[in-house]
UniProtKB/TrEMBL annotation:
<feature type="signal peptide">
    <location>
        <begin position="1"/>
        <end position="16"/>
    </location>
</feature>
<protein>
    <recommendedName>
        <fullName>Galactose oxidase</fullName>
    </recommendedName>
</protein>
<keyword id="KW-0732">Signal</keyword>
Length: 361
């Protein structure tokens, strides 16, 4: 996960020579080479037909991996399966768990998608305390790189979904929606079985936006899966504080510092500023162990962590590291264009090393 922005380059961990000075001129926008270098996670939502996928994201593991990555690349220039049940009607696959939502009549995809009762359910749903409504009554479910897990519920229960999110580390968004699913697994002998309506709750490791509601269903043989009454909610609370750092301090955008910029790290997927903290510490350790000839080194004393989005769809955690701290007045970059794509900044927070490192052996 090496950033390409810096002029200096370190040949390897075993290098004994001093680290070349970093470019300390003013920043000029977001370094998108760090974003380009990382492959996006391939799992962007629940598996087709899944009714539950318990979140498995472990922030401690992510922190350790970020620390390991920063040391190796210093800045320098589980799905559940359904057990088979009685096969009815003849020729159909396994019977699915009962859906608890109403079934439209006649039982067709078009009727489901145009049934006003689902819009009423969605628009009357309660906004959970501590969350903001990101979108309402969409005919598409969220899909993006920060997918965490799925629960199927007995009602359109936004509060229950919020409770699932609050219990999952690094969960910052939820999507509650109604999905038209087959009552039995479709087969060639049973291509279009009767439907059920499931109330689904998905958890996300980033805020959700209207632009993420792009999963409009799919065909399963001749059965058309549909999504409607889709509501998205994003958590209002800031990320946690971390050991040895003061913060988080809410920023208005990405920091654009006139000097002291060390470089950037980018972690696709779930938003977790603790990865930035780990990278900050690991880069300081590396630089401390490889000082300049005069005994000085670049110490990471501050980092800015934020969600980088492409066309308003969250992509991952972007970290900018600095040798000195900067306040909110310098967080002026809210986004930038590259061709027809707009890269925007949200959930931006600053963290300052509590005991500043002077960068001198």
């Amino acid at each position: 996960m090496r950033s390409a922005i810096l002029v200096a380059a370190i040949s390897g961990l075993a290098a004994a020579g001093p680290v070349a000075p970093r470019d300390t001129t003013a920043q000029n926008g977001i370094d998108l080479s760090a974003f380009d270098a990382e492959p996006a996670p391939t799992k962007v939502g629940p598996a087709v037909g899944a009714t539950v996928e318990t979140p498995t994201y472990d922030p401690a593991v992510a922190k350790a991996e970020a620390s390991k990555d920063a040391a190796a690349n210093p800045i320098a220039v589980s799905n559940s399966t359904l057990t088979a049940r009685t096969v009815t009607p003849a020729g159909c696959g396994a019977k699915q768990p009962d859906g608890y939502g109403p079934v439209s009549s006649p039982d067709t995809y078009d009727t489901f998608m145009n049934d006003p009762q689902f819009s009423t359910i969605a628009t009357n749903a309660q906004v959970p305390a501590g969350y903001s409504l990101s979108f309402s009554n969409k005919q598409g479910a969220t899909e993006c790189t920060s997918y965490m897990g799925l629960y199927t519920m007995k009602t359109f229960d936004t509060i229950k979904c919020q409770q699932y999110c609050d219990a999952a580390p690094s969960c910052y968004g939820i999507n509650v929606y109604m999905e038209r699913d087959p009552k039995w697994d479709p087969t060639d002998a049973c291509p279009n079985p009767d439907s059920i309506t499931n109330y689904k709750c998905t958890l996300w490791g980033s805020p959700v936006t209207a632009q993420t509601a792009t999963n409009v269903g799919q065909w399963r043989n001749q059965f058309h899966v549909g999504v409607t009454g889709s509501n998205g909610y994003s958590k209002d609370a800031p990320p946690p504080s971390y050991t040895d750092f003061t913060g988080p301090v809410a920023f208005g955008g990405a920091t654009q510092a006139p000097k002291s910029y060390m470089g950037s790290k980018y972690y696709p997927g779930i938003y977790n500023p603790e990865q930035c903290a780990a990278a900050c510490k690991a880069n300081t350790k590396y630089d401390h162990d490889h000082p300049r000839a005069d005994g000085t080194y670049d110490a990471c004393n501050f980092f800015n962590a934020y969600v980088l989005s492409k066309n308003n769809v969250p992509q991952g955690t972007y970290c900018s590291l600095y040798t000195q701290s900067w306040d909110k007045s310098y967080s002026t970059n809210v986004g930038q264009w590259r061709g027809s794509d707009y890269y925007s900044v949200s959930s931006s927070y600053g963290y300052t090393l509590t005991v500043q490192d002077a960068g001198k052996i």
